[in-house]
Queue: 2 jobs
Job 1
Amino acid sequence: MIKKTRETFGSTFGVIAAAAGSAIGLGNIWKFPYITGEYGGAAFLVVYLIFIAAIGLPIMLAEFVVGRKGKRNAFGSFKRLVPNSWWRYIGYLGVASAFIILSYYGVVAGWALKYVVASATGILHNMSSGQILGYFREFTTSPFEPLIYQILFMFITGLVVIVGIKKGIEKYSKILMPLLLVIIIILDIRAVTLPGAGEGLKFLFYPDFSKLTSEGVLQALGHAFFSLSLGMGVLITYGSYVKRKNNLMKTASEVTIADTLIALLAGIAILPAVFAFGVEPGAGPGLVFATLPNVFQQMTGGMVFSVMFFVLLSIAALTSSISILEVAVAYFSEELKMKRKLATIMATILATLLGIICSLSFGILGDYKLFGKNFFDLLDFIAANVLMPLGGMFIALFVGWVFGKRRTKNELEYGGHINKLLLNGLIFLLRYVAPIAILIVFLNGIGFFEIVKNIWFKCNG
Ligand code: PHE
């Protein structure tokens, strides 16, 4: 049986800290700069920001509403709100996404751990920009070393989840995320004053829409979901731990703003440096690791900052990875009635094993490709650009049409009055804008319309 009283977050700030801790992670600091570099800079950023505001924020609210009302994990909340309906299967999508994301997330978090060690030994401090890139390549393509760090990170993730919600999550993210913000701002100041940084700022803020591709638009959408931890039940699960008196609208807005701000600040630290040191903006997943050590070299006390930065990056990754693992664990323990500890150990091992294949796809498994992507990129694509937007679409449809306006209003008003216009706007976005936009961007991104057009032209001569 499920325990009568579920754990709740101790304070309002605890909710924000935990949800922001989930949202802010490698997505902001590692992924955002490199996909912005890959998909055209400012134009990509504009599209991303539109998706965050018009689709991300409403869906975040929808997840909080479902979770707090349903009081269960992603699967169980739907089951409880609409018994005997197929909506609960959205929960399966979430559990599948959780495993996939956790697997490659652990790999990149392992890289961050490795860079803590590398920074502390000072080895990066005397390298040229080419050597720094070489160092990253050599490390990620070697068969064993990355696995050690990945396994270590996954072990810590599992351990924190076993310790429990409040103690595990709330305590750490409260102090450390603001500290990360401070370090990024210091990095920003150094990066934008580097000779040649202007080119990078132009790249980041001066849009050239001719550079935007349909795959880029899909990436922007997928990343809005990935970065805000949406569409897979993390925030349904967290919402279920939120007390009634908490104002969900305020919490969701604050988390969205904090997440977007950190991504932008990370972009301002990295892209100017990319141009200043002649790194290729489309260099892919290694971009941050190949760029930032150059910036630290140019700072007084750079070595200390470098260690602190990679420690905090690892912790930011940890507060995200525990939230991902929590989705799987809550499902196994509440729905399949498995012991929490056993569920955590099993889920961690499974995700680690899948992650090992991801890690090896940078080296010895690099030749195995599907749709031109290695295993790592493929899993990232499936989770962020397919499963999460799809999950988000269903959650939007559920709250917009099934849960409905009246109940949403009630749920949002526990923490304070909600303006009528705002409520109507939210429901409109959830009912129409989010689902239709997701469908179009998705079909366009996978080339569906191109195929239809070709068939049409063939048939009509
Ligand atoms: N939002 C996290 C990040 O940006 C990643 C994440 C994805 C966390 C999905 C939870 C769920 O790093």
Note: Residues 22-23, 25-28, 101, 226-227, 229, 232, 234, 320, 323-324 surround phenylalanine (CB under 6 Å).
Job 2
Amino acid sequence: MKRIQLDSTASTNAHARTLIKTASQDELFCVIADYQSSGRGQGSHSWHSEPGKNLLLSLVCFPAFLSASDQFSLSVMTALSVVGCCGDLEVEARIKWPNDILAGNRKLAGILIENGIMGTKVSHSIIGIGLNVNQVRFPEFPTGATSLCLEQSRERDREVVLDDLLRHLESRYNDLRQGRHALWEEAYRERLHGLDQTLPFTDGAEVFDGIIRGTSPQGELLVERDGRVRAYARHQIRLKS
Ligand code: BTN
């Protein structure tokens, strides 16, 4: 896969976007940076990362074969790749739906996917991944963040982690291209943070106890509440803890 390696950029997702029009649509490519001056997170959040410590990358693909209604599979592909890469390094990571990767209760990686839709298909996808590798202090999240290094008390060679992560992503993208992503469902469900546990949720109006039972093919979270399983879209529900 073509890699564009930068010392510094505002955001690898933003940089990747500028390359989409001139890129060959047959191939994947990725933009990697040592530092982002305006790293972007979910919603209006930003993503901070010490220079040269972590992995900051955006994978770009052109999955014109994928229906827009199936775009959650890009999130599943990415989350399973990050979890798989962490597993290869003996760090057990879980997926906090929809886009956070946790070790224990702390955030190890974040995912920001920006899709372009043309008609009923996904014309391009910019898959931004921030994986904390060697950073050990997180001023913005004094207790909420972690890194591979904090989990294992040893530094990692970022190149080795990157190679492994890209290997997982490429292999899963090939599965997706060949329509084999339905096979990921169980693996994804099993790695969901909080699966089958009673936890406090909020839907904006109230706080209630619910049990995560899985996700729908469209990417809604299936939560059992008062004995009935309901599907919640992204902004309709949030774990309180
Ligand atoms: C989140 O959890 O809020 C998502 C964080 C995504 C961060 C990555 S770092 C590489 C890519 N470029 C960005 O500007 N953001 C994503």
Note: The helical segments are 12-19, 72-88, 148-152, 158-177, 185-190.
